Amino acid sequence: MCKKRLNKQFFVLSIFALSFALAGAGTALAVEQLSMGTSSVGGFFYNVGAPVAQCINKALPEVNVTAEFTEGSTENLRLIQQNKMQLATISPMVGWFAGKGINMFKKSGPVNFRVVVRLLPNGNVWTTLKKNKTIKTIRDFKGHRVGIGTGGIGVVSRLQLSYHGIDVKKDIKPFFPATGELATLLKDGKIDVSFLTEGLAKMVTATHEIKMISWDEEDRKKYIGEKPYFGAFNYKPNHFKGVDYEVKTIDNGIQLITHADMPDELVYKLAKAVIENIDCISNIFAPAKALSPQWCASKLGNPFHPGAIKYFKEAGLWK
Predict the structure, then answer these.
(1) Class of residue 68 by CB neighbours under 10 A (exposed 0-12, middle 13-18, buried 19+)
(2) Are 122 and 258 a contacting pair, CB within 8 Å?
């Protein structure tokens, strides 16, 4: 009798244990796995994307976002198009081309994506050494040795020069080094002015006094009006060592995107998780201190996902 009671108790306990195990397995299966395309190792988009993924995961236990190394915006958009990635960080300019199926997307056709949030400002700054007395505006670059760069930076810098009436082949002596070399050549005096990222500009200030060339406000408004995938961004006085004045530049932008078919409810949660956890992101990646809820909800050329818009409206951020 005692033995039968023990067997019965053991059976009941086994059923409970199995139930808990199955419940745990069900919970694990319910976690949605999302891959986020970023950039190559050490790239700015990965440096932004990784903490965003980490903080989303912390805020939303029902999802697991993994930041993946890729070749950048163009590949990310193609991976979204092929449903091989669910999220990606991109340059709004490349996104604009993808949405319209032009330039590098002419053969593959338009990519049906939508924006979740706008991420960090991403403004390159035309920089010269302080001792250079002849360069005061971008139009003064004519006749000088100019560091333009390659890849995406090269495209952006040439667009800016063209707007200011500067023909790269005729009006300047152009240099097309890798991004990091743009700072080295400037420091070594081998070029007169260079198109630097924020990080590279700060690196130059460690050993040299610099002068930054701001955009004229009217020019900037007109330029952005013509190219809505760019935005305006100002570096505050003393953001760069020795630069005690405001620097007006163009924000090349970074957007977190997803496929247009992503469920509204999930995108709502993702947008909310990013915006309500900006402190989490900036604690991991200090430049994210530049973010604000209003900034994250501001448009830069490409359309937002309806799920994101729903959250923005509820949070009073939508304009």
Answers:
(1) buried
(2) no
CA nearest 194: which of 269, 89, 114, 124?
124
Query: Which token pair is 45?
Result: 């988009």
Say if CB 43 and CB 72 are below 8 A apart.
yes
Angle at 139 between CA 137 and CA 144, to 5 degrees: 95
In 69-227, beta strands by DSSP E: 87-90, 113-118, 125-129, 145-147, 173-175, 193-196, 210-213
pLDDT beyond 90 at 27: no
Give the pairing type, strands 145-147 and 113-118: unpaired
What value does the mean pLDDT of the chain take?
91
pLDDT, one tens digit per residue, over 189-221 is 999 999 999 989 999 999 999 999 999 999 999
Nearest CA-CA partner of 256 in 292, 297, 226, 284: 297
Mean pLDDT of 269-287: 97
HSE, CB side, 13 Å, CA atoms: give it for residue 313: 8
CB 254 within 8 A of CB 48: yes
> Which tokens hold the place of 180?
């990091």
The Cα 175–Cα 164 span in angstroms is 18
Longest dimension (CA), the chain: 103
Residue whose C-alpha is closest to residue 246's, from 255, 259, 237, 233 = 237
- Token output for 236: 């505050």
* Rounded-to-integer distance, Cα 255 and Cα 136, Å: 32
Give the DSSP per-residue string, 151-180: HHHHHHHHHHHHHTT--TTTTSEEE---TT
Q: Examine the pLDDT at 134 and tell me if it is beyond 60.
A: yes
